[in-house]
Each structure stands twice: as C-alpha cells, then as structure tokens.
Specification:
- The chain has 459 residues and is an all-alpha fold.
- The protein folds into three domains: 50 residues, no CATH class; 215 residues, no CATH class; 161 residues, Serine Threonine Protein Phosphatase 5, Tetratricopeptide repeat.
- Helix content is 63%, strand content 3%.
- It contains 21 helices and five strands.
- Strands 2-1-5 form a three-stranded antiparallel beta sheet, with no helix packed on it. Strands 3-4 form a two-stranded antiparallel ribbon.
- It is elongated and about 105 Å long.
Length: 459
C-alpha cells in the first residue's frame, strides 16, 4: 500500500503517471466530468485510481459474522417462511404454495447478495423482494440452468462427450459466480457467458476455491442436520426443523457470496466500486491547494483559496467552519473586511445562528476593538436582532456611527440601533436621540449618552 506524497500517514488512492506521485483524497482536483477521474493539482492530468484493499477484512476472518447473519430480524421472518412451508398439507395446493414460498426465499437470497456486496452486513427488508427492477431473478436463474443443460447436450451431440463432461464440471464450478452476476447485474447473458464466468473466477483467484469449499461444507452440514433432526425428532418435526435449518445455511452462503463481491469489488468492478468512486469525487470537490498550503504552513495562502472556494460554493458549511478555524489560529480577522467579507453573512443566509454567534464571540474575545465594515455590520446586526441575540447585535453596530462614511448605510444603522434601544434596551430617550442624528455630523454618543449593555430583557 502506498501513502500520500503530502500526507505520509494517509493511504494514497490516486497516482499521477506524469508526476510519478501518489496522493490521498485531499490532494487532488475534482474531475471535469461526472464520470471522469480527478485531476493532478500540479499537471492537471487525469489520475489513476488505486483502490485501498486493506479497507475490507478478508471473509476468512469473518466467518462467525456469516453464521450470525440469519439471526437478524428481517432474516428471521424469512426463516419462519420455511416453517410455514413445512407445515403445508401434502396436496397440489400445498405443493404450489410451497414452491412459491421457496421462490420468494431465493429472491430474498439475491437481495442478501446485493446488500452485502455493497458493504452492509444488515439483512435487507423483506418488502424489497417485491420491488425493484430485479424482481424475478429466480426465474432468470432457472432459465440459466436450463440453458446450461441445453448447451451441454448440444456440445455432447455435435462435438464430443468429453467436452460435454468438462462443460458440466465448469458450470457446476461457476454456479456461484453466475448467481452473483444475476444478483448484481440482473443480466442473463452475462450469467451464461462462459468467458465472463471464467474471467470472474480468475480475477478472484484462490479465494474463490476457498469459498466454494465452504459452500460444499455448508451444503453437507445442512443435509446432515436435516437427517439428524429427522432421526431424533421423527419425520414430521424433523422435516420441519430441517427445512428451517436448510434455509439458515442458505442465508449463510448468500451472505458469504455477497461479501466475496465486496472484498473483490475492484477486481470484479461490481458492488460498491462505483459508489466508492462517487464518494471519492465528493471528497475531491475541495481545492487541494488548501491542504497543501496548510501542510506547508502557508496559512494566508490557504485562507485566500478558502475564501474563493466559499464564494464559489455559497453555503458550504464545512468549508466555512474550516476557514474560521484557520482564521482564529492566525488572528487575521482584518480579512473579514477584505477577501473574507461576506462569509459571515453566508452563515446568516444558511440560518446558522449558533455557529455565527460562536465565531463573533471568538473574534471579539481575541480582538476586542475589531469592527466590521458598515454593510456587514448592518446585515449581521439585523440578523442578530431577529435571532434575539441583542447583546451581540448592539456590539456589532454601536460604534458604526463613528466609522461609516456612507450616509445611506449610516442612517440605516442608526434606525436599527434606535429600534434595538427602544424595544430591547428600554431606552426610548436614546432611540430618539439616535434618530435625530440621521443626516447630521455625529458626535461621540458612546460617552455622552451613557450607553451601557443592559441585561437581556424578557421578551
């Protein structure tokens, strides 16, 4: 396993053949198209994906999980179907109902393969066997078996009986991958194609033989348990218990096949491979220069890139939060009146009052004399007023009359300040005095009016 060029402890998922460097998810650019691979931040060339196979525990180390799999709630419901099937009367109606229930159990087994193949060791809901595009996979499986039999007969008749025997052995050996292909893709032609089946077996390698060995053992265990129960409990009870145990081992085998796909999803290009790449693309929406600048200690350069990213993708809370963390670390709050202007307003637009108030308190705690620009103060002060954060709203606007030069903005600030003074600070005299100052040369009111922060009134 290789590691990132910039982050030595992070596994590398991408490789640039031009730069000959490995990168993690944070150090690559987003792809130019939805289906494209990410780009190298240096040469802008498309990268090669390197799956990290160590993310998955090998199936031979999780055998106990497969034997526990049928004891989940939804799987137990399907186990109870076996009990119902065994108790049906021995008649044509009972036979038909039993066959339908068995087909439903097989259909559920295919859902198990598909679910586990996507990395979820959770039994799928029973209702899913009646929905989705792949309803009726069991009929395709029966068609596949019939087609295999016909193909063997044709080979034996027109070519040579020995070839027919070899083909029978191959189809028996490839039956699990045929079931996998039907469960994952629902394509009968692919499930029948000998070249496709052989290719899947070769790509999995020796692990396929181990899985096949486990499946043979479980089939023998199922038959042995059924016979033992019939000998101990009698034909009626033993047959019922044997049916339940038979489907139990079937669920174990289906979950094992699904996990086989999950473990070898990159070799097979099935299961969670496409989903994994989609998650990688989501991670790659962040400009890699941010991580590289931070890694090299170039914090101002990182802040510039983050400011641009926040403006281009408004409301991206994760990036905003990261920006303000770096800003607090550097103490460069003057950026909020330059390149970072408007980023706090994005928090207000996204209705994130807790995050906004936390950042403002942090700013004034580190730099008590810091003042925002007039337009920012007006917008943020109005939002804080609406959120009943009166103390912060007053702190935001109470000194703006000495700073703001634009008459229109200053008058609006005075109106907001007067409204807060009258309705929340309970200072109607101050409110009248503030309104009289609109359009005038403004003296230092902070000392002459006795402005002090009152306790937050009962609203």
């Amino acid at each position: 396993m290789s590691f990132c060029y910039h982050h030595p402890v992070s596994p590398a998922r991408w490789y640039c053949e031009h730069c000959r460097k490995d990168f993690c998810d944070q150090c690559v650019r987003a792809p130019t198209t939805e289906e494209g691979y990410p780009l190298c931040y240096g040469c802008q060339q498309e990268l090669t994906y390197q799956p990290n196979k160590t993310d998955v525990i090998p199936f031979w180390n999780r055998l106990s999980d497969f034997f526990r799999y049928p004891f989940q709630g939804q799987a137990l419901i399907m186990l109870s179907v076996s009990l119902i099937s065994a108790l049906l009367p021995e008649s044509w109606i009972g036979l038909i109902i039993g066959l339908l229930l068995f087909l439903l159990q097989l259909q559920y087994g295919y859902r198990v393969i598909d679910t586990v193949a996507h990395g979820k060791m959770v039994a799928p809901p029973v209702a899913e066997i009646f929905s989705g595009e792949r309803f009726g996979l069991v009929f395709k499986q029966f068609l596949a078996i019939i087609a295999m039999v016909i193909l063997v007969m044709l080979v034996g008749h027109f070519l040579h009986p020995l070839l027919a025997v070899l083909l029978v052995l191959f189809f028996i050996a490839s039956l699990p991958v045929s079931m996998i292909m039907l469960a994952m893709e629902g394509d009968l032609a692919m499930a029948l194609n000998p070249l496709n089946l052989a290719g899947m077996i070769i790509r999995i390698g020796w692990a396929y033989g181990l899985v096949y060995f486990y499946m043979v053992l479980m089939s023998l265990c199922s038959a042995s348990v059924s016979q033992l129960l019939m000998d101990l409990l009698g034909p009626t009870i033993g047959q019922t218990a044997g049916a339940v145990s038979g489907f139990y081992f079937m669920l174990v085998m289906f979950s094992l096949l699904g996990y086989l796909v999950h473990q070898y999803r990159f070799e097979l290009n099935l299961g969670a491979t496409k989903q994994d790449l989609r998650l990688r693309r989501m991670a790659n929406q962040v400009d890699p220069n941010i991580h590289i600048h931070l890694h090299n200690g170039q914090y101002n350069s990182a802040l510039e890139v983050m400011e641009k990213s926040c403006r281009d993708s408004r409301g991206q809370l994760s990036m905003l939060e990261r920006y303000f963390k770096v800003l607090a670390f550097t103490g460069e709050y003057e950026r909020l009146n330059r390149g970072g202007g408007g980023l706090l307003a994005q928090l207000a637009e996204s209705n994130q009052p807790a995050m906004l108030t936390r950042i403002l308190r942090q700013v004034w705690q580190q730099q008590p004399e810091f003042e925002f620009s007039g337009e920012q103060a007006l917008e943020l002060g109005t939002y804080l007023r609406d959120q009943q954060e009166i103390e912060l709203a007053v702190r935001m606007i109470k000194r703006q009359y000495k700073i703001v030069r634009n008459a229109k903005t200053r008058n609006r600030l005075l109106e907001l300040f007067a409204e807060i003074a009258e309705e929340y600070l309970r200072k109607p005299e101050l409110a009248q005095q503030l309104l009289k100052l609109k359009g005038q040369v403004i003296p230092d009111l902070e000392s002459s009016s006795g402005l002090q922060m009152a306790p937050k009134p009962e609203l």
